[in-house]
């Protein structure tokens, strides 16, 4: 688990590479779709964090021309605070998920992800489970199929192509999210473990892993302020965020929601 790749982000706690043991578990082949999340909200009348707060973060390049100026994130000004943006309206009040029923649900917080998982009789994967499954049996490869991003001229994941953050050429076929079963699955049958959306894990985020080896069924830190997210998203690009690699990791606060965070279930 982890990565000692010279291009890895060691400040994220990618290293050291460490031996981890996980008990048998199940994990969903795809991320949760808009259609599946819609069934959940219809049955339970659940209201997401973004809906309660009245806004969420949207990538500026996906806003229509002339969209009113809103607050941005310092240092990442391409993230804009958009009122009435939520899972049903991914780019704000004039957008919808019609035609994107098979795309991953986004604008879901960690709390939303846990609520959905409990409704589905499941849970969120631990970071160790997620990475084990995403690797598909490959040992220390950067990506679900190997180490080369493009194989025989073929794109195998949905990330940013072009010049970030100003030009997305969509050479991989998508600008924004893609269907959850787009591209070929890994050898365990999991789709889109690199790119498309970041996926919540159950763990509190930490960069300390202890000295006992092997680590058995790690569940992360006991307390914290941020939860682990894995997999990268359609906004990842080597020039800015090379975190679509399987050993990479990131984190965000459990109440946060953005247009590239979603859910994969475990049991």
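Sequence proposed for the structure above (267 residues):
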């Amino acid at each position: 688990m982890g990565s000692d790749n010279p291009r890895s982000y060691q400040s994220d706690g990618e290293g050291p590479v460490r031996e981890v043991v996980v008990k048998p578990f199940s994990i969903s082949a795809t991320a949760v779709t808009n259609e599946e999340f819609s069934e959940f909200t219809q049955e339970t009348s659940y209201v997401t964090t973004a809906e309660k707060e009245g806004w969420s973060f949207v990538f500026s390049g996906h806003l229509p021309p002339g969209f009113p100026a809103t607050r941005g994130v310092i240092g990442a000004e391409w993230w804009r605070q958009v009122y009435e943006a939520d899972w049903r309206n991914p780019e704000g009040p004039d957008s919808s998920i019609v035609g994107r029923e098979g795309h991953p649900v986004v604008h879901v917080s960690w709390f939303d992800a846990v609520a959905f998982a409990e409704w589905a009789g499941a849970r969120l994967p631990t970071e160790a489970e997620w990475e084990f499954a995403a690797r598909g049996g490959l040992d220390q490869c950067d990506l679900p199929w190997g180490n080369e991003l493009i194989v025989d001229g073929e794109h195998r994941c949905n990330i940013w192509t072009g010049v970030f953050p100003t030009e997305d050429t969509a050479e991989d076929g998508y600008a924004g999210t893609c269907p959850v079963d787009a591209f070929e699955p890994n050898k365990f049958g999991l789709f889109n473990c690199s790119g498309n959306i970041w996926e919540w894990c159950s763990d509190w985020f930490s960069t300390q892993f202890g000295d006992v080896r092997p680590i058995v069924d790690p569940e992360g830190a006991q307390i914290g302020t941020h939860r682990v997210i894995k997999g990268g998203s359609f906004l990842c690009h080597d020039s800015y965020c090379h975190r679509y690699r399987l050993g990479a990791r990131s984190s965000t606060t459990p109440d946060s929601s953005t247009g590239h965070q979603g859910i994969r279930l475990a049991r």
